[in-house]
Amino acid sequence: MARYDFASDNTAPAAPEAVEALVAANTGFTSGYGTDPVTARAGDLVRAMLDADAEVRFVASGTAANAISLAALCRPFEAVLAHEHAHVCTDETGAPGFFGQGLGLIRLPGASGKIDRAALEAAVTQPDVSYRQPAAALSLTNATEYGTVYTARAMRELIQPVKTRGYGVHLDGARLANAAAAGFDLKAIAGLEVDLLVVGGTKAGMPPTEAVVIFDRALARRFDARLKQAGQLPSKGRFYAAPFIGMLETGAFVRHAAHANAMARKLAGLMPFPVRHPVEANGLFVEMDEVTLKRLHASGWFVYRFLDGSVRFMCSWATTPEAVEELGEVLRGIA
Amino acid sequence: MARYDFASDNTAPAAPEAVEALVAANTGFTSGYGTDPVTARAGDLVRAMLDADAEVRFVASGTAANAISLAALCRPFEAVLAHEHAHVCTDETGAPGFFGQGLGLIRLPGASGKIDRAALEAAVTQPDVSYRQPAAALSLTNATEYGTVYTARAMRELIQPVKTRGYGVHLDGARLANAAAAGFDLKAIAGLEVDLLVVGGTKAGMPPTEAVVIFDRALARRFDARLKQAGQLPSKGRFYAAPFIGMLETGAFVRHAAHANAMARKLAGLMPFPVRHPVEANGLFVEMDEVTLKRLHASGWFVYRFLDGSVRFMCSWATTPEAVEELGEVLRGIA
Amino acid sequence: MARYDFASDNTAPAAPEAVEALVAANTGFTSGYGTDPVTARAGDLVRAMLDADAEVRFVASGTAANAISLAALCRPFEAVLAHEHAHVCTDETGAPGFFGQGLGLIRLPGASGKIDRAALEAAVTQPDVSYRQPAAALSLTNATEYGTVYTARAMRELIQPVKTRGYGVHLDGARLANAAAAGFDLKAIAGLEVDLLVVGGTKAGMPPTEAVVIFDRALARRFDARLKQAGQLPSKGRFYAAPFIGMLETGAFVRHAAHANAMARKLAGLMPFPVRHPVEANGLFVEMDEVTLKRLHASGWFVYRFLDGSVRFMCSWATTPEAVEELGEVLRGIA
Amino acid sequence: MARYDFASDNTAPAAPEAVEALVAANTGFTSGYGTDPVTARAGDLVRAMLDADAEVRFVASGTAANAISLAALCRPFEAVLAHEHAHVCTDETGAPGFFGQGLGLIRLPGASGKIDRAALEAAVTQPDVSYRQPAAALSLTNATEYGTVYTARAMRELIQPVKTRGYGVHLDGARLANAAAAGFDLKAIAGLEVDLLVVGGTKAGMPPTEAVVIFDRALARRFDARLKQAGQLPSKGRFYAAPFIGMLETGAFVRHAAHANAMARKLAGLMPFPVRHPVEANGLFVEMDEVTLKRLHASGWFVYRFLDGSVRFMCSWATTPEAVEELGEVLRGIA
Question: Given an 8 Å threshold on Cβ–Cβ distance, is A225 in contact with C134?
């Protein structure tokens, strides 16, 4: 039986706090499509976490949440600025173009998953020409795909040049909990002029659910119709809202992420292969040749070779110290 | 506190069989995106229920499942034949056109939600002209939006003229359980040349989940990429598969639907207003003027005026005989 | 050899004024994509005709021009209010949904191609619900599909209730020349809060070309990129602009339309069949049974049965009095 | 007054053979939407030129023709293999994604505009994974964007590995005339298993028009509806067909291209800057720093810096030897 403990942070089960809240919410008849009291309560908790007076929706898919957000910020003949290895660029089967009717992605370089500021400046100062899709939005990811974490200040430096030009800003927070656990101040987001934020529930240890936070109220008009048309306005909304209640009321959202981050650091300490990126969140990326990776797979542990050629190990709320040690031993055996 | 017991069949909580299976599946690490053993087991159960060697996928949204199916059967410059009051025509915010890049809907009349055969014949014999979207698929719904149920024979009569022309067939089974409980033979579907079937989990009493059944294997190629791009390939697939296991292994899927159907019949027996459509599944549609509906709402019971002008009462697995009696009394009081 | 003189107003050749201007513009090298002096001159003439400080673009297709306009005014989860027999609803193969990613069309009734004001009011006062595409724009057509002509006042009465709600307004002017020849004041359009106007060149007697007039300057931002992506930013722009120069400088645009309108009236005078709609522009719609239409076709004259069941005869700049008389005689022979 | 002689091959006027045919076709009434005898005759001439029994359509836009072709070969969750500097990748404002609802482009490297065979092999042997758009078609361009020309044999070597996998093939022939004049055998295309070919009229010296050639007859079904919905089924079809008649009947199509190619070679002979790519068709690409380019612009001659950083000079049917010499002198003056 293959071990998927480190293959991704979505191979874990859901945390007890999330499941218990889901079960608790499963009582009695209630109104549909996010108009129920459970959804209202979860929205309040998200607003409190962010200290922001924003609209909140709960949806099933992070891929859809990101793509819908980009489509809300860009017209089809415009483009989104994003890190070349951002999830929206590489792991969503072209969903932004599908939901955004061909909207473009301008792929920017940058070390360890963070957009290079000079590259961003170069991109936004490109002249508008009719034969190219001009930028209209910036998409950031925190924690990044490489397990690094932007500070609020670093984000502000990237957001400022696009806001000056009137562009929108999307923040992919699939691993926002891990960023928060690493010290990123969630209450700073509202002040960063982010327009749309996706708060990841799934990778944070919930059953499938993501929160879309609409900071720019002008974007909120008819957002439910937008979601419904896109298959992301659940009729039984409480099932997507309740896990957030369980995780936010108990503090498990950040606490579990802190544990995941700690497990990544622990694994780094045991790792016999060179570590490629700073270990700030719950991912660890190491240099490993193909033969060695095959031996690791053969030993029963499944992990992915990632976009930059390194091999990725992800930790989650459910990663145990024992599993980290067990894996460490296996790795030392094949190193 | 408003009562939503009869407002829809998605206002109910999830049935214990579904929730228990979900909780049971929530253990250990597993592979993502529908490659896990829980999803495999649920697929087997759906295949067994249908007695069909078909591909099965579990997704979050019935709206998306329907729209993706239609997009798989039609190109943007073609159209789908559907009942004018089918869910895909009236309740999905234009999702078929969104997922299908503008694909058309040819709205057909027919009593009590069933497509009129002569109207279908007239539509399929329209000449292909370049300035109009020609039909390329038929979409049926069973049980229908008006709580009536097609027999396999009646479906065959509608499917035959489109299959003769090489068109695809989609079956919206949001209430397939209710149709089955009313006598529709689920094992007949495979022989009806249906290409894509959506089996409703949500309205059958599960947490949000729908099964997409791909009878035409040629359509299955790269279907996971299709779903992923459309935001309907859940990473934690077991949460959408497990409820089907709980409901199918125990027989609760049809048993609960039979209860819902029985509650609709019971309500029909107590109803002081004229019933407009045959009560074959879990819905009851009655003639009620606006003043009376307002009084019903004022009494705390929420129901919708429907597309044909009647007022709709939906029953579900969770509808109690006591609630039916309580509502019956209220209705007699305002009649 | 079949006679297409009355089949449509696009069966005619291009008028000499248009062709001469095209040939005259075909000299020397010039910059591309509408940045050339010919395009600039044609834009000035359109602005002068409308007495409006608007942006003007010249494109190849009226279908595309309309669909792009609607896509600019509506998001995919919104809808356009239009006459149920408007060209955008019935003759463009779903182009609005294709260019607008599934945007909806709300089909309104109304006598002789004009939107019924009460029906419009009823539509705009519908509540916004998430499961239906709410209106965001109004599309008018002048002259209408049935050869009738709105006055500026009648248009204002339809526009006012949508502008009050912040909706956009599109005017399909495929036969704007005919409307002008019938007395519609082109200089009134700017005051009517029309946002996007398509001025038909093709049906007015030009080689294929349409002018898109952008009254709302906010919509003009990146419009060239919008057109380029949609295949409607011609590299050799002068070929689409020059015909407008020839037709507008000489007055032929309205003069030829006046001739076409006069030919329709002349045909009405000779018509042995009941005329169904007021003959205000260049079309004539008569009641004719299928056997008689077949005899007309057999006699060599091709015309279409139209959406309301009547048979349509269209006149153009090239229609001769002799052809009208010849046709009149044929019609009397089969009546 | 700036000189655009070498800025592009679409800055030239239309050749007399094309314009005369257009004027000649402008007589009498005829049926619309490509059903007229002029269009039939032009289609025959294209078929004869290619020695192929294929369907032919005449459209207004090369950008649209390419994008529609790719959309016909790929579903939205699939991708097209193309040279990273192909027109579809870099100069069409994302039109493939717009017409193809987000279809992906897999950008392949290769010297001087030709796809590197090893890179293609590597791309087609990528495993199908659900989170990435897998290849479904190959797009080639001949002559290439860098003025080089594929032989039929070189094309076959690129087509074979994709056809083995059942993928479709699109050939962008915006400069097919120049390729033919350089020795590429047009009659070889049919044997290469190209599915859709776009034959450029505009850059070959016609008024705006492109021919879409459908070799795979299965793709031809409802193609007119596809074109109409996309705004590319001209009502007055003869205006797009007639120029092809004039150019093909007289041999001007290839003869003018041979002249353009000769002018590029002549310019190469006079060029004081290093030439970067083989001069096989009508383009010349040279190494020139920004200061020098500014001086060239200041001297009144407009040309573009191209995608690979070189400066591009394009010749056309209308380029005169005198202009080449005049430019040569200017260049030597600033070198």
Answer: yes
